[in-house]
């Protein structure tokens, strides 16, 4: 089962905190185990990151049975002075737009299966990105 995820050497563009936050934004009811697998982190590292995010006011959680449901505080501004004025919601929107723009590859029509067996997003041809989870809102 699980084990320690494969490590990465060198630098990356996104911090582990950003990866965990994006994973929670995608699914506010996700389990720590699933976040760890998606972000290639240990469960202990994810627990520490979630604790950091909660202590800094970026994230809250409520218990629902044996699970947690997370809520991202959308208006919270990023910590680094160079990011002054940029909110968590803005960061997540930017990540969403990047993800959506890479789901439909050149030569592949949106909403149709590509040669690799994956489906592109179905849309009206526009470039608007949508998120399946409302950041900071109540669970839908």
Question: Could you characterize the architecture of this molecule?
Answer:
34% of the residues lie in helices and 9% in strands. By secondary structure, the chain is α+β, with helices and mostly antiparallel strands. Strands 1-2 form a two-stranded antiparallel sheet. A hairpin with a 2-residue loop joins strand 1 (59-64) and strand 2 (67-72). Helix 1 packs across helix 2 and helix 1 (16-26) packs across helix 3. The protein starts with 15 loop residues before the first helix and ends in a 37-residue tail after the last helix.
Give the SSE map:
Elements: H1 16-26, H2 32-39, H3 43-55, E1 59-64, E2 67-72, H4 88-103
Antiparallel strand pairs: 1-2
Key attributes of the depicted protein:
2 strands, single chain, 140 residues, globular, disordered C terminus, two-stranded antiparallel ribbon, 4 helices, alpha+beta
Beta strands, count = 2
Q: For the largest beta sheet, what order do the strands appear in spatially?
A: 1-2
Overall morphology: globular
Mean of residue pLDDT values: 76
Strand content: 5-15%
Q: Alpha-carbon distance between the termini? A: 32 Å
Rounded radius of gyration (Å): 17 Å
Share in helix? 25-40%
What is this entry, summarized?
This protein has 140 residues and is an alpha+beta fold. Helix content is 34%, strand content 9%.
């Amino acid at each position: 089962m699980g084990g320690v995820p494969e490590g990465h050497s060198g630098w990356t563009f996104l911090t582990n905190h950003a990866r965990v936050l994006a994973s929670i934004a995608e699914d506010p009811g996700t389990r720590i185990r699933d976040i760890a697998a998606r972000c290639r982190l240990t469960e202990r590292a994810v627990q520490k990151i979630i604790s950091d995010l909660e202590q800094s006011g970026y994230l809250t959680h409520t218990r629902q049975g044996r699970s947690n449901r997370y809520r991202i505080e959308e208006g919270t501004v990023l910590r680094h002075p160079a990011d002054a004025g940029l909110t968590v919601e803005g960061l997540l929107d930017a990540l969403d737009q990047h993800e959506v723009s890479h789901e439909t590859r050149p030569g592949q029509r949106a909403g149709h299966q590509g040669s690799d067996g994956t489906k592109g997003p179905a849309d009206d041809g526009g470039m608007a990105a949508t998120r399946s989870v409302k950041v900071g809102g109540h669970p839908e």
